[in-house]
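Per reviewer request, we include the raw input and output of the structure prediction for the construct analysed in the revised manuscript.
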Amino acid sequence: MSIISRRGFTLGALGLGGTALAGCGNGVGSAAPQQIDARVDTTLRYLYDRYPGTRALYEKSTGMLVMPLITEAGLGLGGGYGRGALRINNQTVDYYSATKGSIGLQIGAQQFAHVLFFMTESALANFRRSSGWAAGADLEYVFKDTAENLRAETTTSTSPVIAVVFGQAGLMAGASLEGMKYSRIIP
């Protein structure tokens, strides 16, 4: 009888432990989606107030990925991470993480925000279909390290994805999205 009770106890403990871990790790009952949405709202208010020309990008876009805070650090090897939301018609449809790794002459840390404006339906569909979309040279940057004004020709651009990088703070030179990988998450 002691073997059956030990086996029953072990199986019961594993079952309860697995259920508890699954509940913790999948975002069910978590406030994370509301926190991300609140940060996205705050980031968009800041963007539109500080750079009014970005409203024209929003109005022409088919969707936008808002990453309120990306944190990067490096000392030879570097990396970055952040979480945000994909919005279509000003409604959150999915949540994403952004990760980045790098090797080279680098030292420091920085934080910044960025928004990817998807200017065509096909660019948005390709982003949503991919299992892990990597930002590369096909992005057009509105502005990088300085807060220069949005130029009129940028809002009439034919680029499928336009990146707006802003709010840099820290001691690392330059904020770039090249090599950044975006993956859908359940916060």
